[in-house]
Design goal:
The protein is α/β, with parallel strands linked by helices. The protein has four helices and six strands; from the N terminus they run αβαβαβαβββ. The strands form two sheets. The protein has a four-stranded mixed sheet. Strands 4-5 form a two-stranded antiparallel ribbon. It is globular and about 45 Å long.
Amino acid sequence: MTETTGGAVIARMLQNESVEKVFGIIDGTYFGYYAALHRLGIEIVTPRHETCAAHMAGTYARLTGKLGVCMASNGPGVTNLLPGLVVEQARTRRSSIARRHGRQVQAPQTTPAAIGPANPRTQPNPAARGAGSHEP
């Protein structure tokens, strides 16, 4: 039986969700994960800062309608990623965070560090404008 790494499992999960790009800064800790992404044809886009990775993933999701995924290394990488995730969460109400905790990956919602396209049920309803609105 072939041994499978956690990075390979996550990369396959992303492939099953039709992810084409992952935004994040490459760190030596996750070379197995990056190698699995590369083997599966998922492009790694490397910004200059982790916060940019979150904004890039969010913008990618909004423009393409596809799942935008960002990742960061433990410690300062995650600290730098959080401001971008907070803004994207406020903007689209669709960000999920997966974090490495010991040897398990825990995901509060559906996919690792993913920012999905805007959910139409959470967007403002143009027909329900307030009485003070000057728009037609």
